[in-house]
Design brief:
With 498 residues, this protein is mostly helical. The chain has a single domain, classed as Up-down Bundle (Sodium/glucose cotransporter). The chain is 77% helix and 0% strand. The chain is built from 21 helices and no strands. Helix 3 runs parallel beside helix 13, helix 7 runs antiparallel to helix 17 and helix 19 packs antiparallel against helix 20.
Length: 498
């Protein structure tokens, strides 16, 4: 059987299994926005951990991080481990999201901000911020899928076809049963992506190098510069990539929504613990992929082709290469469908219903949300098709991911302040998000980097200063701040989070 036929066969099996799981989830589907977008806040710890992992670790890892390692060396691992260090923020902020989400029935973090600051405008801006910057982030996942499937299938599945398949699957699984079907398919996809990547890495290391000892010896001999200090990373590049990743867990809505869904305190703790284990293993595997490709295929024209090209080598059994391909496809789709659900809920709840005080029923709201999902998916696809034709560091998957997440950093001061600073104001939140985002967009579009620092760094500095200064000279919503923060102070210890 040819590689192309193998690819279509395994892909068909994967799609069939995903549809069966989504249909099973649909049988448990209730009614209403909370049910569709948050699985009625009733996910267990195991499924919560896997959907959290699958949502976070996408084509960015096995394609993007591997490509970054191929190009710049060991610093790529440090950059990614920054995200795991950032999980301290989830340990600290996650319980607060979980508690107020249940108390005030928040569907999104934009709704949380609108209520906390007593300003519809804050919610609208926070939602628009996510909409603008998550479009390229979702498109990146499609690019990773396109590169991978087209190369591993030896052209039997074209880049365009691969991206289209992924787009359609994300739309189908999102619409079948909302977060319930997405979470269940995420669980399958997370297990698939982790197990297949570990097994196939073993083939690469033992067939290509004779074991890990020889693998590390070759690294020291052949590419010592990639192992020295931060590798070829410059400090400004590392900081520009790492800062958005450090705050990823509280700035990205597809992740913050996951903080609303565990069924209990125990399930919440299981989610975090399971994710940490998963993340560490998957990070190491992705970095080893990148180094393996650099040793075995040192002359690639594009670093993001490291993983697809590695899987195409004869030392990897074709069936395993194709299964890994499907595993990475799974990772990317799980991120895309999560983003679709998050943005659709923000468009309907934060922009249409709350923002513009639209007098619509919950059923109508849900229908609008379901309609928005394929529209957003089409936008993702168009952006991915455009970006896939570009070259250079700026259009590599990892830098593009960081650039997209940089814009979402502009909500971080407002999010942190909402939980801890009673003096924080709507004016401070609005000005910091709007002007900070404008700084990021202008610098990204122009390519200008003052003092060599990336847009996210400058945007964050401007955002933080504006948030503090303007809050100090404007009036805070004292009653809501006291109710919001007081509730947390009373209930954190009661629920045994601390």
């Amino acid at each position: 059987m040819s590689e192309g036929n193998y690819a279509w066969l395994v892909l068909s099996i994967y799609v069939f299994c995903g549809v069966v799981i989504a249909l099973a989830a649909r049988k448990k589907l209730g009614t209403g926005m909370n049910e569709f977008f948050l699985a009625n806040r009733q996910l267990g710890g195991f499924v919560s951990a896997l959907t959290y992992a699958a949502t976070t670790y996408s084509a960015f890892m096995m394609v993007g991080l591997a490509g970054l390692t191929y190009k710049l060396g060991i610093g790529a691992m440090g950059f990614e481990l920054t995200y795991l260090c950032g999980l301290v923020l989830v340990v600290f902020f996650g319980p607060r999201f979980w508690l107020v989400g249940r108390k005030f029935d928040y569907l999104t973090h934009a709704q949380l901000l609108a209520d906390r600051y007593q300003s519809r405008s804050v919610g609208i801006v926070a939602a628009l911020l996510c909409l603008v910057f998550l479009i390229p982030f979702a498109a990146i996942q499609l690019m990773g899928i396109g590169y991978l499937l087209s190369i591993v299938s030896q052209g039997a599945i074209s880049l365009l076809s691969a991206m289209l398949i992924a787009t359609l699957l994300a739309v189908i699984w999102s619409n079948m049963a909302g977060l319930r079907s997405v979470a269940w398919t995420d669980a399958l996809q997370a297990v698939l992506m982790l197990v297949t990547s570990i097994i196939t890495l073993s083939f690469v290391v033992y067939r290509g190098f004779g074991g890990f000892e020889n693998f590390f010896s070759r690294l020291n001999t052949d590419v010592p510069t990639l192992l020295a200090g931060a590798g070829l990373f410059k400090f400004n590049v590392f900081l520009g990539l790492a800062l958005p990743w450090l705050f990823f867990s509280i700035s990205n809505p597809q992740v913050t929504q996951r903080l609303f869904v565990p069924s209990s305190v125990t399930a919440f703790k299981q989610m975090i613990g399971g994710f940490l284990i998963f993340g560490l293993i998957y990070t190491l595997v992705s970095v080893f992929w990148g180094f393996s490709a650099r040793l075995l295929i040192p002359d690639l024209k594009a670093a993001d082709l490291a993983t697809p090209s590695l899987l195409a080598l004869p030392l990897v059994p074709k069936i395993f290469a194709i299964i890994v391909m499907v595993g990475i496809l799974s990772a990317a789709i799980s991120t895309i469908d999560s983003i679709l659900l998050s943005l659709a809920s923000m468009c309907t709840r934060d922009i249409i219903k709350v923002g513009f005080k639209a007098n619509i029923s919950e059923d109508s709201e849900l229908r609008i949300g379901k309609f928005i999902i394929p529209v957003l998916a089409a936008v993702f696809f168009v952006f991915a098709y455009w970006a896939a034709g570009k070259t250079g560091l700026a259009f590599m998957i990892a830098p593009l991911s960081a650039a997209a997440s940089a814009g979402l950093l502009m909500a971080v001061p407002s999010i942190i302040g909402a939980f801890f600073w009673k003096r924080a104001t709507a004016a401070g939140a609005l000005s910091s998000m709007l002007i900070g985002a404008a700084v990021v967009l202008i610098l990204q579009v122009t390519g200008y980097k003052p003092l060599g620092m990336w847009p996210g760094i400058w945007g964050s500095a401007v955002c933080l200063v504006l948030y503090i200064v303007i809050s100090l000279v404007t009036r805070a919503p004292e009653a809501k701040a006291a109710e919001f923060i007081g509730y947390l102070e009373d209930n954190l210890s009661k629920h045994k989070f601390i």
